[in-house]
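#lab-general

N.A. 3:47 PM
ok so I finally got the sequence cleaned up, no stray characters, all 207 residues accounted for. can someone with queue access submit it? mine expired

B.Y. 3:52 PM
send it over

N.A. 3:53 PM
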Amino acid sequence: MNVSFSSRELRDLLVAWVALGLAFAIFFAGGGNRTIQLLTSGSFGLALVVSLLTAGVGFLLHEVAHKVVAIRFNQVAEFRADYGMLAVAIMSALVGFIFAAPGAVYHRGVLTEREHGLIALAGPVTNLLLLVAFAPVLVVGVLVGSDVVQLVGSRGLIINAFLAAFNMLPFGSLDGKTVKAWSTPVFAGVLALSILLTVGLFLFVGF
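B.Y. 4:20 PM
back already:
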């Protein structure tokens, strides 16, 4: 299996990664006014790095997972950023909430319903697997007493659990709709797990 990225695709992934990192950094800062305070104090850079390492990485690997599985099923697959929606993500963060639809992996070729479902499922499952990566980061942060490392770990856990749950909703162009069309039991199981993890992490870890 040969997975390659065109120059345009790499550019779109980079722009989407940076834009989402910026949007989530603004959102977690508390919106526009608080962001200005962080900028003037020199603290916004750290907030941006944390968001790039958590929300940004979660987004990147989610989309790459879609692409890899699509290629596994002999599809021509490539990510395309939605620049308008990336602007919406940043603008919404400035007013205190976030709406992120950064783009999608587009693929062409003949697929069965099962293959369609597995391609869609790959993104949310990747976000759930990232919980395994971020949990040790949180533990290390606690053990060494580093607030920054703890923040990366906790944000990584919460954001990726939420991304999995949100994308498994069976509406519109979200992954859950395609997964449900293939297998209701798989859809229900992954959605339930994602919601439980999101709620549990929010209650016990927080932002």
